Amino acid sequence: MSEITEQELPQDAKPLWQKAVNAIQVSNHGYAVSLLQGVLEKAPGFLQARKLLRKSEFELLDGETKKKGLFGTGGTRKIQSAIKKNPHQALVLAEKELAKDPGNDDINDLLHEAALKLEMMETAAFALETVRKATPDNAPLLHKLASFYLDNELPDKAVDVYNDIIKHHPTDGVAIKGSKDASARASMQRQKWDENSDMRSLMRDQDQFKELEESSRSGLTKDQLEARRDRCIEKYNEDPNNLKAAKELASVYEQLEDWHNAHQFYSWAHSLSSGDTALLKKASEMNDKAIEQDLEQLQSALDEDPDNEELRQALKARRADREKEKVTECQMRVDANPTDPHLRYELGSALYASGMHSEAIPHLQQASRNPHIRTKVLLTLARCFKAKHMYDLAVKQLSDALADLQAMDGTKKEVLYEKGLLHQDMGDSESALESFKQIYEVDYGYRDVAQKVEASYSQ
Question: If we measure between CA atoms, which residue out of 130, 134, 164, 133 comes closest to residue 146?
Answer without folding.
Answer: 164
